[in-house]
UniProtKB/TrEMBL annotation, chain A:
Protein name (database record): Molybdopterin-dependent oxidoreductase
Species annotation: Hymenobacter negativus
InterPro entries per record: OxRdtase_Mopterin-bd_dom, OxRdtase_Mopterin-bd_sf
Superkingdom of source: Bacteria
Keywords: Membrane, Transmembrane, Transmembrane helix
TrEMBL record, chain B:
InterPro entries membership: Cyt_b561_bac/Ni-Hgenase, Di-haem_cyt_TM, Hydrogenase_cytochrome
Keywords carried by this UniProt record: Cell membrane, Membrane, Transmembrane, Transmembrane helix
Domain called Cytochrome b561 bacterial/Ni-hydrogenase: residue spans: 8-211
TM segment ranges: 12-35, 73-94, 137-157, 177-198
Compartment list: Cell membrane
Organism annotation: Hymenobacter negativus
Topological category with respect to the lipid bilayer: Multi-pass membrane protein
Stored SUPFAM superfamilies: Transmembrane di-heme cytochromes
Predominant location category: membrane
This protein's name: Cytochrome b/b6 domain-containing protein
Pfam (any one): Ni_hydr_CYTB
């Protein structure tokens, strides 16, 4: 497209005779042709760019360049993240029972008495086991927050459990040195990522440490005033209003710590790894 | 006698034509996302006048089971949509083009006359100007809608980090409704826009590509006798024409 950005002075382009008018119309045709060809080429270039994009190697369910942008978005989001920003809380009367939505990791039978949560210390091979009573011995935190499914629906739920940060302060497994993981004053050797798996290892999520240590991230054992049911992740599940529901792993089996992003069930299928709010 | 009159600056033509495919892809990927929780409808109680969207619509365009791809495209193209829109607004502000685009106190009355005229109910000629009152209202509204889409989009994309925004927009679920309604608004805008461009004809369409119109002018006074143009002052009202 060509341009004449200066506003025309009336009469400036006005031809004085039919010959001049003819020349003006020829010039108009030339400009018009050039502009349409430019626009057409720009359109073809856009189409070419799009075809190049979708032909790029697949990176966990989406073309690699899209994955790169999603990762850049999440770097930007984590730079902006503040642990003091809290998800809003609601009146308990608004709490409802969420739908079950998927049974990955929940398909085998589980004996709640024999169940243990296994936590492997960061940078060690040692694994420590915890009973539900160990978790319930930590300060009980209740919150009424909105559970947001990545599908687009949301529902208010009343959760109760222990803060993951309280757990990692009481049991300092997230640092190499064995120092407690104080979220407001994180030690230098704190693990950057947390991984969680179901006992059958069929469902797994990864979390950045900032979200894991957020005061609203709970090892949850009660929903709407009742102990968790099997469908909702008994005996212990993760709840964090800082992430979509896909990260709220039900029936925690193992927790480990990592230097790089742990594998994540839905991130392998095209979703954003961060899935953060 | 004919004269070449400049109409749309180059920058505005580029912003316009970049926005077209980007907004189309935002709507398309948005429908892939919406499919996963397609709860909106027009109706009341148990009466549904129209469901967004009928199954046949999803089937016809293969919109189903593409949530992950939809989100990835949406969260990539949002940057292009936002930056293109921001640059457009800044350009109109600094170039002075906003004077033609922003409605004035006469625009609403004029918009009614334009609408009546287009429906064949008002026979007198309309004012000859770059953008009439109806256009000023439409082109300004669609920018406000764009801002609305960015803000409601941000409110449902990061509802904790931008919790104040989500609350200001009526909460997570309501912000999603506005975000969807604005999208329907773009589709309606597009339909009217295409119909009006078809009515206005070649001279007008070419101006959005090549930048100029060919106008009939009085050979003595050089006054434009037919066709819209940028020449009269942007705030000239109905009465001054």
């Amino acid at each position: 497209m060509t341009d004449n950005s200066t506003a025309p002075v009336p009469g400036e382009n006005a031809p004085a005779n039919p010959e001049a008018e003819k020349a003006m119309l020829a010039e108009a045709r030339r400009r018009s042709r050039r502009s349409f060809i430019t626009l057409g080429l720009a359109g073809l270039a856009g189409l070419g760019g799009w075809r190049w994009l979708i032909s790029q190697p697949d990176d966990a369910g989406i073309p690699h360049p899209l994955r790169k942008v999603l990762d850049a978005n999440s770097r930007l989001a984590s730079a902006y993240f503040k642990e003091t920003r809290l998800a809003p809380e609601f009146a308990r009367s608004r709490a409802r029972t969420p739908r079950k939505n998927g049974a990955y990791g929940l398909k085998s039978e589980i004996d709640p008495v024999a169940w243990r949560m296994r936590v492997q210390g960061y940078g060690t091979d040692k694994t420590q086991e915890f009973t539900l009573a160990d978790i319930q011995a930590l300060p009980k935190v209740e919150m009424v927050t909105e559970l947001k499914c990545i599908e687009g629906w949301s529902i208010v739920v009343h959760w109760a459990g222990a803060r993951l940060s309280d757990f990692l302060e009481r049991y300092p497994l997230a640092t190499r040195s064995g120092r407690p993981a104080d979220p407001l004053n994180p030690p230098a050797d704190l693990a950057p990522y947390v991984a969680m798996l179901t006992p059958d290892e069929q469902y797994y999520v990864g979390l950045d440490i900032a979200s894991a240590l957020h005061p609203q991230t709970l090892l949850c054992y009660e929903m709407n005033g009742e102990p968790l049911t099997a469908d909702h992740g008994a005996p212990l599940r993760l709840v964090t209003p800082l992430k979509y529901g896909i990260k709220h792993l039900k029936r925690i089996g193992t927790i480990t710590f990592a230097d790089t992003r742990p594998k994540d069930f839905w991130a392998e299928l095209g979703y954003d790894w961060d899935a953060g709010h | 006698m004919k004269q070449l009159v400049e109409k749309h600056p180059l920058a505005i033509r580029w912003f316009h034509w970049v926005n077209f495919p980007v907004l189309a892809l935002m709507i398309w990927s948005g429908m892939w996302i919406y499919w996963a929780n397609d709860v909106y409808r027009l109706g009341w109680g148990k009466t549904t006048l129209f469901k967004f969207f009928p199954q046949s619509f999803y089937d016809a365009f293969h919109l189903d089971h593409k949530l992950a791809q939809g989100m990835s495209w949406h969260f990539v193209l949002m940057w292009v949509f936002f930056l293109n829109g921001l640059l457009y607004v800044l350009y109109t502000l600094f170039s002075g083009e906003w004077r033609y685009l922003l409605p004035t106190r006469h625009s609403f009355r004029e918009a009614v006359l334009v609408t009546l005229h287009d429906l064949g109910l008002y026979k007198k000629p309309l004012p000859v100007r770059k953008f009439n009152g109806a256009q000023q209202i439409a082109y300004t509204s669609v920018i406000v809608m764009g801002l609305g889409s960015v803000l409601t989009g941000l409110a449902i994309y990061k509802p904790v980090q931008f919790g104040w925004l989500t609350q200001a927009l009526g909460g997570y679920e309501f912000a999603r409704i506005i975000h969807f309604a604005l999208t329907i608004g773009y589709v309606l805008f597009f339909i009217v826009h295409i119909a009006q461009v078809a009515r206005a004809g070649w001279n007008n369409l070419r101006a959005m590509v090549a930048g100029f119109e060919i106008e009939e002018v009085d050979p003595v006074t050089h006054k434009i006798t037919a066709g819209p143009t940028s020449l009269p002052a942007a705030d000239s009202s109905l009465t001054s024409n």
